[in-house]
Amino acid sequence: MNNCKIIEFNKIGDEYGGYLVAIEDNLNIPFDIKRVYYTYGVKDNKIRGKHAHRNLDQILLCLNGAVKVKCFDGYEEIEIHLDDPSKGIFIGSMVWHEMYDYREDAVIMVIADDYYNESDYIRDYDEFISLCKEVNS
Ligand code: T46
After folding, report:
1. Predicted structure pTM score
2. Which atom of ligand 1 is nearest to the CA of 48?
3. Ligand 1: which atom is nearest the Cα of residue 112?
Protein backbone atom coordinates (compact mmCIF):
# COMPACT_ATOMS: atom_id res chain seq x y z
CA MET A 1 0.00 0.00 0.00
CA ASN A 2 1.46 3.34 -1.10
CA ASN A 3 0.87 5.64 1.82
CA CYS A 4 0.95 3.18 4.68
CA LYS A 5 3.83 0.97 5.75
CA ILE A 6 5.54 -0.61 8.73
CA ILE A 7 8.70 1.07 10.00
CA GLU A 8 11.16 -1.00 12.05
CA PHE A 9 13.12 1.20 14.43
CA ASN A 10 16.62 0.29 15.47
CA LYS A 11 16.56 -0.94 19.09
CA ILE A 12 19.77 -0.65 21.04
CA GLY A 13 20.36 -3.30 23.67
CA ASP A 14 22.71 -2.36 26.47
CA GLU A 15 24.27 -3.82 29.60
CA TYR A 16 21.32 -2.69 31.76
CA GLY A 17 18.99 -5.05 29.91
CA GLY A 18 16.07 -3.83 27.84
CA TYR A 19 16.25 -1.62 24.80
CA LEU A 20 16.57 1.99 23.76
CA VAL A 21 14.87 3.36 20.65
CA ALA A 22 15.76 6.85 19.40
CA ILE A 23 13.28 8.86 17.32
CA GLU A 24 14.88 11.58 15.19
CA ASP A 25 13.04 13.72 12.69
CA ASN A 26 14.19 13.47 9.11
CA LEU A 27 16.42 10.53 10.04
CA ASN A 28 14.21 7.60 11.03
CA ILE A 29 11.02 9.74 10.88
CA PRO A 30 10.40 10.89 7.29
CA PHE A 31 9.23 14.42 8.24
CA ASP A 32 9.67 17.35 10.65
CA ILE A 33 7.95 16.43 13.91
CA LYS A 34 5.41 19.06 15.01
CA ARG A 35 3.25 17.10 17.44
CA VAL A 36 3.33 14.01 19.62
CA TYR A 37 0.23 12.68 21.35
CA TYR A 38 -0.75 9.42 22.99
CA THR A 39 -3.80 7.45 24.06
CA TYR A 40 -4.12 4.98 26.91
CA GLY A 41 -6.82 3.33 29.00
CA VAL A 42 -8.97 2.58 25.92
CA LYS A 43 -11.56 -0.15 26.55
CA ASP A 44 -11.04 -3.32 24.46
CA ASN A 45 -14.47 -3.04 22.82
CA LYS A 46 -13.86 0.50 21.53
CA ILE A 47 -12.82 1.46 18.00
CA ARG A 48 -10.85 4.70 17.61
CA GLY A 49 -9.79 6.44 14.46
CA LYS A 50 -12.45 5.83 11.79
CA HIS A 51 -11.17 8.71 9.68
CA ALA A 52 -8.55 9.70 7.13
CA HIS A 53 -6.48 12.86 6.92
CA ARG A 54 -6.40 15.17 3.94
CA ASN A 55 -2.71 16.09 4.38
CA LEU A 56 -1.31 14.82 7.68
CA ASP A 57 1.51 12.25 7.88
CA GLN A 58 1.80 10.26 11.10
CA ILE A 59 3.62 7.34 12.69
CA LEU A 60 1.82 5.20 15.26
CA LEU A 61 3.77 3.27 17.87
CA CYS A 62 2.46 0.93 20.54
CA LEU A 63 4.77 1.60 23.49
CA ASN A 64 3.02 -0.88 25.78
CA GLY A 65 0.38 -3.57 25.32
CA ALA A 66 -1.07 -4.26 21.88
CA VAL A 67 -3.62 -2.95 19.40
CA LYS A 68 -4.81 -3.82 15.91
CA VAL A 69 -4.83 -1.20 13.16
CA LYS A 70 -6.78 -1.47 9.92
CA CYS A 71 -5.72 0.79 7.05
CA PHE A 72 -7.61 1.28 3.78
CA ASP A 73 -6.44 3.51 0.92
CA GLY A 74 -9.56 3.12 -1.21
CA TYR A 75 -8.17 0.01 -2.93
CA GLU A 76 -6.28 -2.16 -0.54
CA GLU A 77 -6.94 -2.95 3.11
CA ILE A 78 -4.32 -4.18 5.53
CA GLU A 79 -4.52 -5.15 9.18
CA ILE A 80 -1.45 -4.70 11.37
CA HIS A 81 -1.00 -6.09 14.86
CA LEU A 82 1.06 -3.53 16.76
CA ASP A 83 2.59 -5.21 19.78
CA ASP A 84 6.26 -4.27 19.62
CA PRO A 85 7.55 -0.82 20.71
CA SER A 86 10.28 -0.96 18.07
CA LYS A 87 7.71 -1.22 15.27
CA GLY A 88 5.70 1.72 13.93
CA ILE A 89 3.13 2.28 11.20
CA PHE A 90 3.52 5.20 8.86
CA ILE A 91 0.03 6.43 7.92
CA GLY A 92 0.05 9.17 5.32
CA SER A 93 -2.75 11.26 3.91
CA MET A 94 -5.90 9.66 2.47
CA VAL A 95 -5.65 6.42 4.42
CA TRP A 96 -8.77 5.45 6.35
CA HIS A 97 -7.59 3.96 9.65
CA GLU A 98 -9.22 2.28 12.63
CA MET A 99 -7.63 1.10 15.89
CA TYR A 100 -9.35 -1.70 17.82
CA ASP A 101 -8.82 -4.74 20.06
CA TYR A 102 -6.91 -2.55 22.49
CA ARG A 103 -5.21 -4.50 25.24
CA GLU A 104 -6.13 -2.77 28.48
CA ASP A 105 -2.53 -1.68 29.07
CA ALA A 106 -2.07 -0.33 25.52
CA VAL A 107 -0.26 3.00 25.19
CA ILE A 108 -0.36 4.32 21.62
CA MET A 109 1.99 7.17 20.80
CA VAL A 110 1.55 9.12 17.57
CA ILE A 111 4.16 11.34 15.93
CA ALA A 112 2.72 13.85 13.47
CA ASP A 113 4.05 16.34 10.94
CA ASP A 114 1.53 19.04 11.82
CA TYR A 115 -0.53 20.55 14.63
CA TYR A 116 -4.05 19.38 15.42
CA ASN A 117 -6.49 20.72 12.84
CA GLU A 118 -10.02 19.33 12.73
CA SER A 119 -10.52 20.55 9.14
CA ASP A 120 -7.81 18.08 8.02
CA TYR A 121 -10.02 15.14 9.12
CA ILE A 122 -12.34 13.20 6.81
CA ARG A 123 -14.62 11.54 9.34
CA ASP A 124 -17.38 10.55 6.91
CA TYR A 125 -16.65 7.22 5.20
CA ASP A 126 -18.78 7.98 2.10
CA GLU A 127 -16.96 11.29 1.65
CA PHE A 128 -13.62 9.44 1.91
CA ILE A 129 -14.68 6.95 -0.79
CA SER A 130 -15.83 9.68 -3.19
CA LEU A 131 -12.61 11.67 -2.62
CA CYS A 132 -10.57 8.52 -3.41
CA LYS A 133 -12.53 8.10 -6.66
CA GLU A 134 -11.97 11.78 -7.55
CA VAL A 135 -8.22 11.55 -6.95
CA ASN A 136 -7.91 8.40 -9.07
CA SER A 137 -10.25 9.41 -11.94
C1 T46 B 1 -5.36 9.78 14.30
C2 T46 B 1 -5.41 8.68 15.28
C3 T46 B 1 -4.30 7.69 15.11
C4 T46 B 1 -6.99 17.37 20.22
O5 T46 B 1 -7.55 18.31 20.80
N6 T46 B 1 -5.67 17.45 19.88
C7 T46 B 1 -5.01 16.45 19.24
O8 T46 B 1 -3.81 16.58 18.94
C9 T46 B 1 -5.75 15.26 18.91
C10 T46 B 1 -5.07 14.11 18.18
C11 T46 B 1 -7.07 15.18 19.24
N12 T46 B 1 -7.68 16.22 19.90
C13 T46 B 1 -9.08 16.07 20.31
C14 T46 B 1 -10.09 15.90 19.19
C15 T46 B 1 -11.18 15.10 19.84
O16 T46 B 1 -12.07 15.95 20.52
O17 T46 B 1 -9.18 14.90 21.12
C18 T46 B 1 -10.44 14.26 20.88
C19 T46 B 1 -10.23 12.82 20.46
O20 T46 B 1 -9.69 12.79 19.13
P21 T46 B 1 -10.08 11.66 18.09
O22 T46 B 1 -11.49 11.25 18.29
O23 T46 B 1 -9.71 12.15 16.72
O24 T46 B 1 -9.11 10.48 18.57
P25 T46 B 1 -8.71 9.14 17.79
O26 T46 B 1 -7.95 8.30 18.74
O27 T46 B 1 -9.90 8.55 17.11
O28 T46 B 1 -7.72 9.62 16.61
C29 T46 B 1 -6.43 10.11 16.94
C30 T46 B 1 -6.10 11.36 16.11
O31 T46 B 1 -7.10 12.36 16.32
C32 T46 B 1 -6.02 11.07 14.64
O33 T46 B 1 -5.38 12.15 13.97
O34 T46 B 1 -4.93 9.61 13.17
O35 T46 B 1 -5.47 9.10 16.65
Report:
1. 0.96
2. 27
3. 33
70 Cβ closer than 6 Å to some ligand 1 atom: no
In 3D space, the residue among 77, 88, 70, 76 whose CA is nearest the CA of residue 11 turns out to be 88
Extended strands (E) in the chain: 4-8, 11-13, 19-21, 35-40, 48-53, 58-64, 67-72, 77-82, 87-91, 96-100, 107-112, 121-122
Task: Dump the DSSP string for 53-83.
Answer: ESS--EEEEEEES-EEEEEE-SS-EEEEEE-
- Count of CB atoms situated within 10 Å of the CB of 107: 18
The pLDDT tens digits of the residues spanning 6-35 come to 999 999 998 889 999 999 999 999 999 999
The catalytic residue positions are 51
